[in-house]
Design goal:
Two copies of one chain form a homodimer.
Chain A (H helix, E strand, L loop, with lengths): L10 H9 L4 H11 L1 E2 L1 H5 L7 H13 L3 E5 L7 E5 L1 H4 L2 H14 L6 H12 L1 H9 L1
Helix pairs in contact in A: 6-7, 7-8
Chain A binds a DNA duplex through α3 and α4.
DNA sequence: TATATTTGCTTCAATTATTGAAGTAAAGTT
DNA sequence: AACTTTACTTCAATAATTGAAGCAAATATA
């Protein structure tokens, strides 16, 4: 008897019901950039996510089918998190956040991010293809 | 002495610091679709936002320069909310949420939204131009 | 003109979410 | 055998959200 978590039948609203918070898309970002990551790797990203939050966001992402969790081939205590197709399809959302942030918050954005943004403005499609592969 | 609200210099993270929640982008959605709205109009959208939340999200959106609040020309107790350029530039983010939601949550999405999604898949660019104008 | 209604909020108590620090168990390293 | 690492969990304090109620000014209605 899983209750309905969706506030309406609007796809924007339903998407936000799943990942409309301050952490979930940052985890997706790290997985997009790195391909795969461990708990520790995700934990060390610069925004300082509390480990309790990281743990429950990973569970939610797994439950919604956006990531998989698999055993490390040689180290039994490490798990590897990876985006599924569904998770990779969040790349366009993230790309648009990068564009909005660069256009509207440029004084707060690092040089590294600005460089990436230039590539994006130059050829969004190939950046997307590269990220999602 | 306004303290820094941004967790890092990543534009994704900073964007989420501003509108990474379950309500803000729904207000932007309604303003995009309707062009302009009153408090009442926004309050009546189908997700049932609490009026206290609507009030503070409107303040935040105004503070971040994404919307304007102006007096109604003939009715002194009504205010009209409108997107600024900065606010309109959130349209691509919203469009990508629509696409992701339709692709990945289609069983929860209304027929009306599916029709709009078809238009989007057909010609995203002109839908965007229409929304942002 | 008096009364009722509408609009755009604010207030507040209860519930829920988040933080940040500490702890734990199993596995790996020295 | 002792120490460290990894992937978490636990928990108390703080912050955010909900949902209902209230309120003042403006407007509509009788």
């Amino acid at each position: 008897m899983s209750e309905n978590i969706f506030r309406s039948t609007c796809p924007i609203s339903s998407s936000l019901d799943l990942f409309g918070d301050k952490w979930t898309l940052l985890i997706v970002r790290d997985l997009l950039y790195h391909g795969s990551r461990t708990f520790k790797g995700l934990f060390q990203s610069e925004e300082n996510i509390p480990s309790s939050r990281l743990a429950d966001r990973l569970k939610k992402l797994e439950n919604m089918g956006a990531i998989t969790k698999e055993k490390h081939p040689s180290n039994k205590k490490v798990f590897i998190y990876r985006l599924t197709q569904k998770g990779k399809e969040l790349a366009p959302v993230i790309i648009e956040l990068i564009i909005w942030g660069n256009k509207n918050l440029s004084e707060h954005v690092s040089e590294e991010s600005k460089t990436f943004y230039q590539k994006l403005e130059n050829d969004k499609e190939s950046v997307l293809i590269e990220l999602m592969k």
